Amino acid sequence: MEKRVKKAILPAAGLGTRFLPATKASPKEMLPVVDKPMIQYAVEEANRCGLEEFLFITGKYKRAIEDHFDSAFELEENLRKKGKDALLEEVQRLNHLNFAYIRQRHPLGLGHAILCARPFVKDEPFAVLLSDDIIDPDDNLLGRMISIYDRLLCPVIALEAVPEDDVHRYGIIEKGEEIEDGLFRIKDLVEKPHKKDAPSNLAIIGRYILTPDIFDALQSVQSGKDGEIQLTDGLKAIMGRIPLYGYLFKGKRYDAGDKLGFLKATVELALKDPKLSVPFRRHLDSIVRGT
Q1: Per residue in 6-54, pLDDT tens?
Q2: What is the pTM of this model?
Q3: What is the DSSP string of the chain?
Q4: Which residue among 17, 77, 193, 263 has the highest number of C-beta atoms inside a 10 angstrom radius?
Q5: CATH number of 7-289
């Protein structure tokens, strides 16, 4: 019987230098987008797909993540006594999930972070979600990727068409056969190529369904000039043995890993909030009119 995807890995050991000084002692992943930390959007996305086991790959100064996803007895009792049932339900909504934490002691790249998850994953397929990439909650990217995995039983990575001037910021795929609309068997991958060397404009974004094959591959790849182990190199290494598929996402993704993308996510998700949308839109309109 084939194993189903039940576990999610959330790498969260980065230094968050783009958001200094806010991230000097606080995790970037805990920066609030409207009313919840960035990383919670990824947890909720995975939970909507039925995943209930989560591993956070953390680093120094990341204890706030562990505290956030722990139960908060005193707070919950206070809300209960005051009859604030809606808030109580909100803070308890993820209490049924199982969370584990492994510390990545040295910042050796995304590939190394995934490798740290091996004792947790063992021999099962698993999802990887990068919380920098916030997927609009109305979209179901991860759910579609899990469905593809269930059919093909091979790794699936999320893709997005990006402007040619931005290809140097991403891993870029070389397209192979398009086996169905928006689903490609990947021929090759290149990490952050120059514009003239990019084989396409299809960029790898922060959602992956991986199989345990990736662990041996990551152990065998050479670290780059910066000493980091790249997940892209591990994916290239497994392609000689098993197919690798890319699913082209056409929904809404917010690149919240930089300040502009973070602000866009905050504004647009606030506009989707039923309690905030009308007064907030009114405020934005007043700014545009200069009133």
Answers
A1: 999 999 988 888 999 988 888 999 999 999 999 999 999 999 999 999 9
A2: 0.93
A3: -PPP--EEEEEE----GGGTTTTSSS-GGG-EETTEEHHHHHHHHHHHTT--EEEEEE-TT-HHHHHHTS--HHHHHHHHHTT-HHHHHHHHTTTTSEEEEEE-SS---HHHHHHHTHHHHTTS-EEEE-TTEEEPTT--HHHHHHHHHHHH-S-EEEEEE--GGGGGGSEEEEEEEEEETTEEEEEEEEES--GGG-S-SEEEEEEEEE-THHHHHHHHSPP-TTSPPPHHHHHHHHTTTS--EEEE--S-EEETTSHHHHHHHHHHHHHH-TTTHHHHHHHHHHHHHT-
A4: 193
A5: 3.90.550.10
